[in-house]
Amino acid sequence: GARLAAARALVTRLAAAVAAPQAGPAYIATLTRLMDAGEAEIAGLKQSQRADFDALLMEERDLTRELEQFTARMEGWDIAPAGPGPSSQAAAAGATGSPGKGAAPRPRVAEKAAQRLFDGTAQKDLPA
């Protein structure tokens, strides 16, 4: 954002100064000042980008771990004993700790849910 715009502005000013050379120590001082300011701004931008990247990397690791745990839990829902009647549904609900949820979803549902989370379409299904 703002840091990138500031760095670009300094580089543009430096390029304009180099394109119009002048004689004398004032010109050299101006080039030195613009170069130092540009380098400092670029270094600050790089540091900021690295910090942002590190934060995103940590968030990605956390989300991956949570998704793996959630996927394992969803796959566990399909392990409940199969059979006709309400007793198998009650056993499935008791196995997950979620009474009254009905029949267990298939692993394919978990895979589709995970894919929707990754491609961003899961948000479209939520009520506004």
From TrEMBL:
Keywords: Signal
Record keyword Signal present: yes
Signal peptide: 1-19
Top-rank taxon: Eukaryota
Biased composition (Low complexity): 80-105
Record flagged with keyword Signal: yes
Protein name: Uncharacterized protein
